[in-house]
Amino acid sequence: VTALVRALRDICGAQAVLEERSDLEAYVTDWRGVYTGTALCVVRPATVHETARVVAACREHGAVVVPQGGNTGLAAGATPLALSNAVIVSLSRMRTVRSVDAPGCTLAVDAGCVLADVQETARAAGRLFPLALAAQGSAQIGGLIATNAGGTAVLRYGSMRSLVLGLEVVLADGTIVDGMRALRKDNAGYDWKQLFIGSEGTLGVITGAVLRLFPTVRSSVTALAGCGTAQAAMDAFALLNESLGETLSACELFHDDAVQLRCAYDPSLVRPMPASPWYLLLEAGSSLRSLSEAVEAGLERAVERGFVDDCVVAGTSAQARALWEWRESISESEKRSGPSAKHDVSVPVSAIPAFLERAASAVVERHPGVRVLPFGHAGDGNIHFNVLLPGDGSVDAASVNATVHAIVAEFRGSITAEHGIGRYRRDELPEHRSDAEMRVLRAIKHALDPDGRMNPGAMLAI
Amino acid sequence: VTALVRALRDICGAQAVLEERSDLEAYVTDWRGVYTGTALCVVRPATVHETARVVAACREHGAVVVPQGGNTGLAAGATPLALSNAVIVSLSRMRTVRSVDAPGCTLAVDAGCVLADVQETARAAGRLFPLALAAQGSAQIGGLIATNAGGTAVLRYGSMRSLVLGLEVVLADGTIVDGMRALRKDNAGYDWKQLFIGSEGTLGVITGAVLRLFPTVRSSVTALAGCGTAQAAMDAFALLNESLGETLSACELFHDDAVQLRCAYDPSLVRPMPASPWYLLLEAGSSLRSLSEAVEAGLERAVERGFVDDCVVAGTSAQARALWEWRESISESEKRSGPSAKHDVSVPVSAIPAFLERAASAVVERHPGVRVLPFGHAGDGNIHFNVLLPGDGSVDAASVNATVHAIVAEFRGSITAEHGIGRYRRDELPEHRSDAEMRVLRAIKHALDPDGRMNPGAMLAI
């Protein structure tokens, strides 16, 4: 037992420090199961003060800190790799709801609170916490902030950055910074919390947050539209965005190939609109009583204009679920189909059709045998331009990534719209950012973590 | 003529460099006319490249840079004071609209574009740029970003921070950082642009921005409600916020004293609801066709619940304007009434009634002869808790500020919700922020402006 482990036990109690290889396994393996790293130990502080002392002890003993929430990230941002001296600081014991302010629409929580619990807490208070994503049963608020998580309603509510009003963090030297303010507006000084949102654990440990809540959505409408081309689908989006305005909360785009893929695994399913190569899944919601008329009228106009060929509006919540499943099942279908090259790119919303065309032709031309499977949050400009690889291993995922990301750069897009840089895309970042911008990133890192003790190797090379 | 002035003339042309005292006057006096400073000269670059060379030349010749937009800020953030070597870099010649993307809902502009022109550009493209404030005929986009401007529709659209997708800046060493991305989502690295939003010119010069546009609002409803107490007014807000949800764009609170004050200066006016001490001015808008039913129903329920005593819904846009004028005329009335102590505080929305009560009783008790005149963006928690001072000079505005800000601190509020720190509130900031937080602010400043050349004395003491 090292002096550091003894110190951590003193701070948090012996049971809060995990050292056994079998205990560590879940913490050193990333959510996708791609990477397995190593750590000196996992420590699970129960309070912000324990966290601060843990970080200070790590510093004192020359260890580095890798903060970890639910470990559901998709970029291996919380997986210590090639580090001989990493302590994983798990926030999982810090799951207290500190306060709920229903009329003020705010909620103060510990960083370890699980997203599904936060949603439920808001619901019980007659409010909505709009962040929703697949991993919500495990993902923790701190990790969701550190990765600026997106999810299904970014179009209307923004990503985590728009949902955080206040933040409490522990800096690399163990200092607690208490910014747990429940303010909708605050222009007093640099908004430093913005740096921690999306910082992937590289600037400090997020220990608490004040979140924004919203009025409950009373009427919501889900609809699926079949379109002849991606351009027609995006024209339909633009038209519906204009007519539905503030009520539009999701606009998901996917191709009939994805539908066919799913049908191949479940022959009992019938393709909803076999004549249309592209699908647009829409969701609109309102605190107002009825919206379906407006949605139906908007869709009618899109049909009249020739943007939409056919459409269906869910009449029941079961029908709505069934429509959503066409979108949500894609990853599972993709997984079952074999190896793939995944992407999480964004381009300007209006450039989506051109991007899809350019990227698809480049990929197919340069990498014979692949199939493109693009889908994603089209209303946000975020496309998971995934590519199915031939089973014979003849095509390397990294080379497909390079092809796609080069096209993304032509459109001034981002190589990661929501998943983050982490360790997956770290070495690609400098290719997609100017030297000036990389200097700014490094200056920020150095300002807040001068000794490089916070999650080294994530986002920026060591 | 100094070597620096010669260098600036070489870069921008002789006519772009102002040295005459009479030419400088408008640039060295703040919008409120409270402060007058001094500057070596004003330089008006025409492009980002000229701006970069100007900043580099200032550095080379040992001068400091004070960026200035429309000079409409309310915190003297752009007024060089106690600086013997300041060059004012005015962005006023950089007013090109770089590109408009109507379907993608983005607009790329030079920093010197005037807000009213940007609104008009959006309108001409069938879109809405929702930022609106009193100085919109002069205020420039760069300054509005550097101060994270708020305005009348923050409740629905957020402040400038929510409206900026991309940013181009010149750093203190003259490096251009091009982050002009038109992306709704981007998690690639620290979101450094967030630091420049609200940086008050202390980290660099903002030269361009990509802004978010929104669908046009088709139906909008303005209503005025009279309420018996501030708590009743905020209860009405909570109820209407819940029933109107995403459509609510403004909720302004003011007291009958303000109405009476205006009536005193214009005896032809009749107080709208003389029996109610508090007024709530509401605006809701929607891309949907008709909203007025929903607004009327919500108000009816607020009446039934006893939150609202009486109300009127504007039937025409002239009526709507007349209702807004009750709110917008307050500053003018205040000015005409004599000296006052101004505040721009925010507290959690639900704490507004308690804050108003505590602050009013503290102010009246400690400063005999004053009258409180609170009003503001209640839906955002932002109250201009202004205090009319006796004409005999017996009460000092600074001591009233101290009283009010101490109460703000009790509520974990902010001493400036929208106007910023600038030089007005600079020396108060450390009293309202922890040592840890001040260290973070200074670390950020040092990381990006190590020699202290960017707007020294604004936000942070030199």
- By DSSP, the count of extended strands of chain A is 19
Largest sheet of chain A: 8 strands, antiparallel
Look at the structure and give the mean pLDDT of chain A. 89
Strand content bin of chain A: 15-25%
N- to C-terminal distance of chain A: 28 Å
Summarize the structure in words.
2 copies of one chain form a homodimer. The first copy, chain A, has helices at about 5-10, 20-30, 50-60, 115-125, 140-145, 155, 160-165, 195, 230-245, 255-265, 290-305, 315-330, 330-335, 350-365, 395-410, 430, 435-450; strands spanning about 15-20, 40-45, 65-70, 85-90, 95-100, 105-110, 125-130, 165-170, 175-180, 205-210, 215, 220-225, 250-255, 280-285, 310-315, 340, 345, 370-375, 380-390. The first copy, chain A, is α+β, with helices and mostly antiparallel strands and about 450 residues long. In chain A, strands 12, 13, 14, 15, 16, 17, 18 and 19 form an 8-stranded antiparallel beta sheet that branches. A 5-stranded antiparallel beta sheet of chain A has the order 5-6-10-8-9, with helices on both faces. A 4-stranded mixed beta sheet of chain A has the order 1-2-4-3, sandwiched between helices. In chain A, a hairpin with a 4-residue loop joins strand 18 (about 370-375) and strand 19. In chain A, helix 1 (about 5-10) packs antiparallel against helix 3 (about 50-60), helix 10 crosses helix 13 and helix 14 (about 350-365) packs antiparallel against helix 15. Chain A is globular. The two termini of chain A are about 30 Å apart.
